[in-house]
Design goal:
Elements lengths: L12 H8 L3 H5 L19 H15 L7 E5 L5 H9 L4 E6 L2 H9 L5 E5 L11 E7 L12 H18 E14 L9 H7 L8 H8 L3 E8 L1 H17 L1 H8 L1 H20 L2 E10 L13
Parallel strand pairs: 1-2, 1-4, 2-3, 4-5
Antiparallel strand pairs: 5-7, 6-7
Helix pairs in contact: 6-8, 9-11, 10-11
The structure holds S-adenosylmethionine.
S-adenosylmethionine binds next to α1 and β2.
């Protein structure tokens, strides 16, 4: 089941830590109670907490993970999906990958024997047993570097899908959530986001994801929930503003102002459709593709 390590085609460890290792206490001031750092799934009457749980439940159901043995969460953040898998969905073992030191330490400190977390990229992961389901929420955004050509990005994404295919049991599902370029191109985006918020990182286009997973996964469902991300960013920004003084004490005025600007830019991006939020259920194709033989005559 193990795999050969390839060079991570996406954002480096340093780039990821630049963003995610600012301070756990800082993120706790404006994320939901479980520190989920990706778009929630909103319905009428939701709070940020309930909308985040709805999103996690959606992916657990999408990946058919209820009651299974082993689930991999690629880009597990502070572990809210790992917790939910073992606490509410009877999963025996939940394994998370993250490139953030503070996130992995935070999860280890909770000492849940059913949860394992590795400080490694998916490109270094080498499991000894297969998985029954894979979930990846809000990490695919980091799987390509800025200024790569579309063909280079597709090659990196294909490597990711090949790994997932190799690690999954036959008939199993990958549930994927990612931001993607919508009615826009990379050059429309500000240097500010690339240099100061998510260095070394570039977003996918839907067409690149589709090409990269072809003949490895069947796309079973696909939704664009960009309004959900707009609302999530609004909720995060409101929380940050409400806790501004505490945030400035923790990380300083400059960092808080930078995060406020990043959330405002994101709200406009999702509102205008320049950014979209994709949620996909992908079923592993169990038979490798073979061209149909043409009948003679
Ligand atoms: C926006 S956070 C999302 C966290 C979590 N899934 C959630 O929804 O709360 C992105 C996560 O992807 C992880 N990540 C980024 N690049 C990665 C890579 N190459 N391999 C594994 N994890 C990666 C980061 O460390 C971080 O945990």
């Amino acid at each position: 089941m193990s795999s050969v390590t390839i060079q991570n085609p996406g954002a480096s460890l340093e780039a990821i830590q630049h963003h995610y290792d600012v301070s756990n206490e800082f993120y706790k001031l404006w994320l939901d109670r479980a520190c989920t750092y990706s778009s929630a799934l909103w319905e009428e009457g939701d709070t940020l907490d309930t909308a985040q749980l709805r999103k996690i439940d959606f992916h657990i159901e999408n990946s058919r993970a209820k009651g299974v043995d082993r689930v991999l969460d690629i880009g597990c953040g502070w572990g809210s999906t790992l917790d939910r898998l073992v606490d509410k969905y009877d999963v025996r073992q939940a394994i998370g990958l993250s490139l953030s030191e503070t996130q992995t330490q935070w999860i280890r400190d909770r000492k849940n024997p059913q949860i394992q977390v590795h400080l490694e990229s998916w490109s270094e992961h080498s499991p000894t047993e297969p998985y029954d389901a894979i979930i990846s929420i809000g990490a695919f955004e980091h799987f390509a570097k800025l200024h790569q050509t579309s063909q280079q990005k597709i090659a990196g994404y294909r490597e990711f899908f090949q790994r997932c295919h190799q690690w999954l049991n036959p008939g199993s599902y990958l549930s994927l959530q990612t931001i993607a370029y919508g009615n826009s191109k990379p050059e429309d985006f500000s240097e500010f986001m690339a240099n100061e918020i998510f260095p070394d990182t570039d977003l996918p286009r839907l067409s690149e994801i589709v090409e990269a997973c072809e003949h490895l996964f069947e796309i079973v469902t696909l939704r664009n929930d960009r309004a959900c991300y707009e609302r999530t960013c609004r909720a995060w920004l409101a929380n940050l503003k409400q806790n501004r003084e505490a945030a400035v004490r923790l990380v300083g005025e400059e960092t808080v102002a930078r995060y406020e600007k990043y959330l405002q830019v994101s709200i406009v991006g999702f509102y205008s459709g320049k950014l979209v939020l994709l949620r996909m259920a992908l079923r592993r194709l169990d038979r490798p593709y073979r061209p149909l033989k043409r009948r003679q005559g």
